[in-house]
Design brief:
This protein has about 300 residues and is α/β, with parallel strands linked by helices. The protein contains nine helices and twelve strands. Helix 2 packs parallel to helix 3.
């Protein structure tokens, strides 16, 4: 199977290229500097010329706070690029797997969000990602949209790497404890994408397509997430870090965050047979990968 992945330096696309289950498949990556996602005709032509069996649309504008002042750029990449990708997929008559986010929800629901819950993004980033979902779905019915959350990995920029970096120069850190979500490991997202790709290629069933939530098992707030990171780091000789729990109001940011980002992934398990590991297990694995060579 020939899989075209958008993105060359992101967490998910990097994880796909190094994913054990991707072996035996041909992985083609497109992105900057050769192609900018906002160059829509160039993007579509590159996809059509590559003639893949399936597309994994993983590249996105993910600077949540910066998006508040760069709305046009965020819209160009998160909304219009998926539209172009969907149009290319339709022309080739192939499936497309598109990565989306928990930020399409308001965060006001007291329990986990299901795929059919009403959306209501509260910031520019979430609004552009939701528009990207809609435009891609309108371009081709042969799609899977995966809503994920709190993504981390040994690659790129993410919460785990930020905590480890700050822990090198601090004795204690203040971390928000009144936002909850499902930390999700990018290598596990990659594994899930490969499995879904194989399912879509081998089966035309309509129920395999549509919107699915994809997150790690379990729930956490940011402070709990940080504590597990630092606990794992201590095993590699890092000093103990005190994590002070604070409120969102005590750590103001340009963009509002959903208070509740919990997503139920039961539909993905029922339809595609996919269940990710518990976030604590994956977090410890990520910390190990980042620190074992420096221990």
């Amino acid at each position: 199977m020939k899989i075209l992945v958008t993105g060359t330096h992101g967490q998910v696309d990097t994880s796909i290229r190094s994913c054990p289950s991707a072996k035996g498949h041909e992985i083609i990556s497109i992105g900057r500097p050769e192609i900018d996602l906002s160059e829509y005709e160039k993007l579509k032509n590159a996809i059509i010329n590559a003639n893949p069996d399936i597309i994994i649309s993983s590249a996105a504008y993910t600077a949540v706070d910066k998006a508040e002042s760069e709305a046009e750029i965020a819209y160009a990449i998160n909304a219009l690029a998926p539209k172009a990708i969907g149009e290319a997929a339709a022309k080739l008559n192939i499936p497309v797997i598109h990565l989306s986010t928990d930020y399409v929800f308001s965060g006001d629901k007291p329990s986990s969000y299901d795929e059919d819950d009403k959306t209501g993004p509260i910031g520019v980033y979430g609004k552009t990602k939701l528009e990207g979902e809609k435009l891609l779905a309108a371009a081709t019915p042969n799609h899977v949209i995966l809503r994920t959350a709190w993504v981390y990995s040994p690659y790129g920029n993410n919460f785990v790497k930020t905590m480890l970096r700050l822990g090198e120069s601090r004795e204690e850190l203040n971390v928000v404890a009144d936002q909850q979500g499902c930390p999700t490991y990018a290598p596990e997202i990659a594994r899930a994408c490969i499995t879904i790709a194989e399912n879509l290629i081998n089966d035309q069933a309509i129920e395999l397509r549509g919107i699915f939530n994809l997150t790690g098992q379990g729930k956490a707030n940011w402070a709990q997430f940080a504590k597990v990171i630092f606990s794992g780091a201590e095993k590699f000789g890092r000093k103990k870090i005190i994590v002070n729990e604070i409120t969102t109001d005590q750590y103001p940011t340009p963009a509002k965050r959903p208070k509740n980002s919990l997503l139920s992934s039961q539909k993905l398990l029922d339809i595609h047979g996919i269940e990710l590991d518990n976030w604590e297990k994956s977090t410890k694995e990520c910390v190990k990968m980042l620190l074992q060579n420096n221990a």
